[in-house]
Amino acid sequence: MLKKKVAMLLAAAMVAATVVGCGGGDDAKTDAPADDAKTEAPADDAADDAADAPADDAADDAADAPADDAADDAKTEAPAADGELIKVGIINNDPNESGYRTANDKDLQEMFCEANGYEADFQYSKKNDEQITFAQNMLTKGIDYLLISAADTAGWDGVLQDAQAAGTEVILFDRVIDADESLYAASIVSDMEKEGQTAVDWLAGQGLDEYNIIHIQGQMGTAAQQGRTKALDEKVAAEDNWKLVVQQTGDWNADNAKQVVQSVIDSGEKFNVIYAENDDMAKGAVAALDAANISHGVDKDVIVMGFDCNKWALEELLAGNWNYDGQCNPFQASYIDEVIKSLEAGEEIAEKTIIMDEKGFDAKEITQEDVDNYGI
Amino acid sequence: MQKNEVKKPNESMLSRMVRHQMFIPVLALVILAVFNLIADPAFFKITVGQNSSGNMVLQGFLISILNDGSELAILAIGMTLVTAASGGQDISVGAAVAIAGSVLLRILGGGNSRPEELAAPIIVAFLVSCLVAMLFGAFNGVLVAYFKIQPMIATLILYTAGRSIAAWINNNELPVITDPSLGYYGGFIPGVPIPTPFFIAAICVAIIFLVLKFTNLGLYTQSVGINENSAKLNGLNPQVIKVITYVIMGLCVAVVGLIKVSRISTINYSTIAKDIEMDAILAVALGGNALSGGKFNMAASIFGAYVIQFLTSTLYKFKVSSDALPAYKAVVVIVLVVISAPTVKEWFGNVTKKFKVKEVA
Amino acid sequence: MKDNIVLQMKNIHKSFPGVRALQGVDFTLRKGEVHALMGENGAGKSTLIKVLTGVYSKDEGDIFLDGKEGPVAIHSPQDAQKIGISTVYQEITLCPNLSVAENMFIGRTSGIGQNWRKMNSDTEKILKSLDIPATATQQLETCSLAVQQMIAIARAVDMDCKVLILDEPTSSLDEQEVEKLFKLMRDLRSKGVGIVFVTHFLDQVYEICDRITVMRDGQLVGEFEIEKLPRVQLVSKMLGKELDDMSDIKGEQKAYERKAGSVPVLEAQGRVSDAGIKPFDFHIDKGEVNGFTGLLGSGRSECVRALFAADRVTGGTIKMNGKPVKISKPLDAMKNGIAYLPEDRKGDGIVGDLSVRENIILAQQVLKGFFKPFSKAKQYEIADEYIKLLSIKTASADTPIKSLSGGNQQKVILARWLFTHPEYLILDEPTRGIDVGTKVDIQKLVLKLASEGMSVTFISSELDEMLRTCSRLVVMRDRKVVGELSGDDLNQSKVMSTIAGGDK
User: Which terminus of chain B, N or C, has less C-beta within 10 A?
Assistant: First the structure.
């Protein structure tokens, strides 16, 4: 009987390794331009760069506008010089994994369609070896571009070499892999540390007398958790009036977060900031605050911070119930499209690692338009 | 059910107590309580405060434990029956909760992910989710009973696929219900100071005890679990009884789905009720029930569930660091499991017996 | 060692807690003979074989083997195999998903290397020499059961065995397959292998064996040459009843007379189940006690199980009190007033962890229905009543049944069925493995119940118990009903000669 129980515990431990939060790519450690850190009104940078396209795509999410403007844009220029469709193979994680992934997949699906000059083959798995098999099958069939969001960082060398031999260009998105830079054309990632830094800078800008923070971490060891924790840890170590009341993992889970906050409330300790590493956990924390009638949001007792920019979370910001939400940009399709066009045009890709623009939203400044554009 | 100990006159009171099935969970609870009491007497303070919707509600650690332990207690009911009849465990519980919750939200939202108002009364949505969860339970049960697949393997199917099914039910949307009435089930009903999940758990517990008293569910499941051949020759249909326990498990899952979804008014398919099956199985084991099936003690399982929640809350309270949290829990679990192992219990009993003999001499 | 003796076991003793399984047993096997080891349940033949093959260690006694100086020590099945003793069991213990050749050589190669070609060609040679219809590269599970059995034997023989033990090899084979197996056995015999053959089938013994050793209750009854031991003698020796002992036990039970025109309580026609018995007819009248008799494995239990639908019923009709009824599962039988106390008390009877009380009420509770449990008070009342009635020795009604002695467990199961107030009670070996006092109690109870109008079918491996209680005996041999005895025919010699069959 004992054996059975031990086996079960092992099973539980194994299970713990399956769910990954936003992004999850390791080692996206390229230095972020410092001036970017301050939160800007999103309208400001909606200018002419690539970040514009995902916004359009996101707008399509809301049931109102069909996918025409993004599509129109693309149609005019996309079909390659000879008028043939560009064949792309796309390997992604399970779209049901999280809201982030769902948005990411939708974005890719809308970009890589025939209307935009692409013939796309989508394959999904959260298992690395299955993904590798898919990739090899695609290479055998013959494709022009292979787009990979790898489940794991290791084991891809063979696939990348095969691709190179077959003349297929590889573009990594969302997650990086352990391979020589020469083996792929570009890698489009989020910078989790920058996300954390943006959030902490925003918090520092609130000018509180003292910061008593409940820090609810994501699943330990994931890139998103590590990146978002690092900036806060550094700030707390550096400043005397910054204090962590508790630092505890919520495993990305609202319920766990609620219990963590509940526990602090029950013990009667003072706190004025909740720094939750995703929206779900922020929501759980707020549930605990509500039950104890502790006010939260704009100009209230407790500042609530979340990440991922779920649409419902941005609505909470809009309503003034939360104070801040950090973006983890799932809209990589336009960046990829850009890269492919450059390659088709025979241009060199200057910087192999492309960091996406990611914003942080302040409840005082957010608009309905932001909610529609950036909510996932 | 607890009166089965043979009363041998020469057996000391102490060793009888030690052998009792409730001994381990009660001991664990006492240790945890004493530990907390010494560390912080305020642990047991219960205050009355106001919540954000203006209700007067009870607050304090104990209330939190009773509140947060509700889901586990309800699942322990189903898990106990499943374990007793089929000699194995249902590991698809968490995934099934995701499905039940997803169905609930789908009906409430009517396919719209951000409904202005409820598309159907909550009770209707709940009944539909019960039905769906019971169907999935029956699916597990049929695999176990008729296809003779080991329960853990059989339920592995739903364990793997369940969360994707849950996401598919809502087209990968995450519906958010703003209507406050949904929040009652995971929070407070206006004017009632006690958290609703506690009431729901209490009702479930009351129902299962009434069912055990006024039907033969206990006798049948135990007979099937202990000796299937014998049960068959006494006119029982072991297959049907096993399926029934999985269907009851499904019902428990649907109730938990309602509470979970109500707590946050939305759902996250990948994290809702994550790993809860392991805690539910642990509750059954902690209650001194053999995971190989057969005889069970429902009260001990339910008690075990609250002990686990007590442990979790204690760990949160003492701010055990995130990295070490699973390790602490594992150590405590290993200790509990080891001391409730029959051989250790036997040894423990012998030691206390010797102790008694010396005392007399 | 005397010439042509290959194996000699002398004065073997083996005890288990509470049981003296072997008490000074001798056994001798000669080169080139097929030697039957016969005995009823508990005779000790399987213990003897397990001692010989090293599964059990003996308490006392010596084993001598041809070509070895002094007694040999056998501590494990591997030891036994090394010195040339191989066993082939009823269940095939080979690997069905490997090839025939792999099965022949598995676990026998030293080192890592394996010459596959040589292995296959060697296998072909062996198969050919023993005339086994299989090829070396064929996957084992594609062979018929008999061929698999023969391959297991070939493997044993190829390992240079001098002693081959065949433990009930024919149980799952049909007649033609048995013929093939026998041909192989004859071949081996002519090659000088000594074969120990354990079987329940009398016909097979007389077809192939040269010599018979009979055991009973852990003791040696004797070793006989086959020609000198007529069947009826063999049966009498196995059952421990002297044929000339004509002082027949005829107890209180009066000779049964069928009343003209009376309708039987139960009448079965062509009843057959999937447990391997031939279809049979059967009837029992009100207040009658009858029985199925036959050697172990003759199918007597399977018959009553078929009546109760304990096995899957595959044919036949049943009438209760003249009315046709459908009995396709135990609950049907119970609803028609049939009760069945199974042969395997531990496996089919008791629900070990449940209390005496719960075990007593179980069957009636099932009949009463899911939503109508007896109240606790009522349960205790019932339990106390039956504990008193059958004088069950238990600490309390709440004691788990598994902590009771065998006899008392049996009484609890009996109480369970009596509490259903059956019209027809089937008792399959109710007296096995229980103390003498309880045996007598149970026999008396059976007669008392019959006198109160209950019909009882009683099965026991002890013939005198049957004769003492039954007024009619259905005799079985090799899974067939071969006769029915009542009245004056109901005596030991007649029963044994019917069991033995044949004209020897």
Answer: C
Mean pLDDT is highest, among B70-74, C46-50, C199-203, for B70-74
What is the distance, to the nearest Å, from the Cα of residue B127 to the centroid of all Cα atoms in its chain? Answer: 20
* Contact list, B167 vs chain A (CB under 8 Å): 95-96, 102
Are C373 and B214 within 8 A, CB to CB?
A: yes
Contact assignment for B59 to A98 by CB distance below 8 Å: no
Residue A19 has pLDDT above 60, yes or no: no
DSSP-derived secondary structure for B262-288: HHHTS--TTTTTTTHHHHHHHHHHHTT
Distance from CA of B361 to the nearest CA of A (A): 37
Question: Which of B264, B277, B310 is most worth mutating to test chain A (most A CB atoms within 10 A of its CB)?
Answer: B264
DSSP conformation letters of C393-437 = --S-TTSBGGGS-HHHHHHHHHHHHHTT--SEEEEESTTTTS-HH
**pLDDT tens digits, C265-282:** 999 999 999 888 899 999
pLDDT digits (tens, 9 = 90+) for A142-168: 899 999 998 888 888 889 999 999 889
Residue C2 φ/ψ region, left for φ over 0, alpha for ψ in the -120 to 50 degree band, beta for the rest: beta
Chain mean position to CA A253 = 17
Contacts of A351 (CB under 8 A, 6+ apart): none
Structure tokens at B86: 């089929």
pLDDT at C173: 75
- On whether any CB of chain B is under 8 Å from the CB of C312, the answer is no
For A163, A170, A179, the CA distances from A182, given in Å and listed in that order, are 12, 10, 8
Nearest to A95 among B42, B172, B290 (CB): B172
Beta-sheet pairing, A186-189 with A353-355: parallel
Q: Which residues contact C75 (CB under 8 A, 6 or more apart)?
A: C54, C57
Instruction: Tell me, yes or no, if A259 comes closer than 8 A to chain B by beta carbon.
Output: yes
| Closest-approach residue (CA) in chain B for C371 | B215
Please give the residue of chain B at the shortest CA–CA distance from C329.
Answer: B235
**Number of residue pairs across B and C with CB atoms under 8 Å?**
88
Q: How far is CA C213 from the centre of its chain?
A: 18
Average pLDDT over chain C, rounded to whole? 86
Alpha-carbon separation of residue B26 from A29, B75, B286, B307 (angstroms) = 51, 20, 10, 8
In this structure, what token pair is assigned to residue A39? 């939160």
Going by DSSP bridges, is the β-strand pair A86-92/A145-148 parallel, antiparallel, or unpaired?
A: parallel
Amino acid letter at B233?
L
Evaluated on CA atoms C427, C429, C433, C434, the torsion sign reads positive
Interface test with chain B among C313, C334, C340, C354, by most B beta carbons within 10 Å: C354
Give the gap in angstroms from C-alpha C438 to the nearest C-alpha of chain B: 23
Confirm or reject contact between A208 and chain B (CB < 8 A). no
What confidence tier does A35 reach under pLDDT thresholds 50, 70, 90? very low
Tell me which residue of B117, B113, B151, B127 sits closest to B284, measured CA to CA.
B151
Residues 6+ apart with CB under 8 A from A122: A90, A92, A105, A108, A109
Nearest CA in chain A to B66: A259
Distance of alpha carbon B348 from alpha carbon B354, whole angstroms: 10
pLDDT over 60 (residue C373) = yes
B337 with A246: Cβ contact below 8 A: no
Q: What is the pLDDT of residues B216-272, one digit of tens each?
A: 999 999 999 999 999 999 999 999 999 999 999 999 999 999 999 998 888 888 889
* Chain B partners within 8 Å of A255 (Cβ): 68, 260, 263-264, 272-273
- Within 8 A by CB and 6+ apart from C111, the residues are none
CA distance B279 to B283: 6
Of chain A, the end-to-end C-alpha distance in Å amounts to 46
What's the pLDDT at C2?
Answer: 57
Instruction: Determine whether B356 is exposed, middle or buried from the number of CB atoms within 10 Å of its CB (0-12, 13-18, 19+).
Output: middle
